[in-house]
Amino acid sequence: MPHDHHDHDGLSPSGHPYRVDNDAPLSYWQTMEIAIRELMIEKGEITAAQVASQIDAMDARSPANGAQVVARAWTDPDFKAALLKDATKATREMGFDIGPMNLVAVENTKDVHNVIVCTLCSCYPRNLLGLPPDWYKTREYRSRTVKEPRKVLAEFGVVLPDSVTCRVHDSTADMRYIVLPARPDGTDGMSAEALAKLVTRDAMIGTGLPKSREP
Amino acid sequence: MGGDAAGPVPTDQHDFALWEKRVDALMILGSARGHFTVDGLRRALEDMGEQAFEDMTYYERWVAAVNQNLIEAGVYTLEELGAKMATVTARGDTYGAAQDV
Amino acid sequence: MQVRICDLSPPGHIRTPKYLRGKTGVIERVLGRFQSPEQRAYALPAPEKQLYRVRFSMAELWGDGAEAPEDTLDAEIYEHWIEGGDHAA
Questions:
Q1: CATH T-level topology, domain A63-205
Q2: In this structure, how many other beta carbons lie within 10 angstroms of the beta carbon of residue B45?
């Protein structure tokens, strides 16, 4: 199988442990996944190559894509205006394959801090940023962020002053959201490429801030 | 769930296992084939009830939702699924050993 | 424009969160027409509905329990969940 090299490496490239998989006892739900996949292949619905290529396409999406979008908005005022007006169009025109996703960008300023949540399930701009972090899907994050966002943000190390308005966005329907963080002070003259390295995944969800200088 | 009291947000992170990525791919491909919509998947997830959220992992719930929708769409029957799952189980005791390779 | 979210609780797949039902907010922007998830969830022909982003104050949602009353929450709401729905469509 073309994808078996993803397993058995101990730690992944990102340094996180892989979930117990190929060498652990077969679970009921894993059995179901294998059965569904094989039935769909036998019935000509899909091919094994399509499954592999879909996994590759999803693996290729990462927060680095969003970081490029943010960095361009920081350095190109026309692009920033286009992004805030229609983020779906702006990211597509930048060359990202976001599929059928409808994207809205919300801007952080010195007076406003935005944070994204999905209380009903786990809607996330996956076609730009890749799959969401585990905490985004937890009961705790989904329950609390709409009621006590400041306490939640503080747990992530983001303490909002009273002078800043917090705007929470619950992705309840067809839109997906990305936060356009405020450009950090002291980054004048930096290239978009260098700026992109300051933009973290959490900064685009609103639970983090961009790094202030390149690590 | 929105607005309910809950404890600190857990920040443990894991990388997705192969079988989880395959569930994700089956969700996208099954939807592209027109057999269900994301709303159909969410409806199936909600119908599993609150306890499923506690007892099952994220992708366990999603594979169950994909299956429910494929059964409803008539892509395969329960009998076919049952027989295939028995075949898979008979191949071996681990996810790796249970593949048809 | 100020709007109130319908305070209804039928069973089934609904994308209007319970914590917003019966609450009043303002339309932040009009998002366009999308098929209703309430039919799509059951693989039925789905009418297109106008979708709005509605902004609520935390004070409106949580009263005295609000963490910061001036903070806001935005959510997407389909027109049939807004009282008097058609007026805004």
A1: Nitrile Hydratase; Chain A (3.90.330)
A2: 21
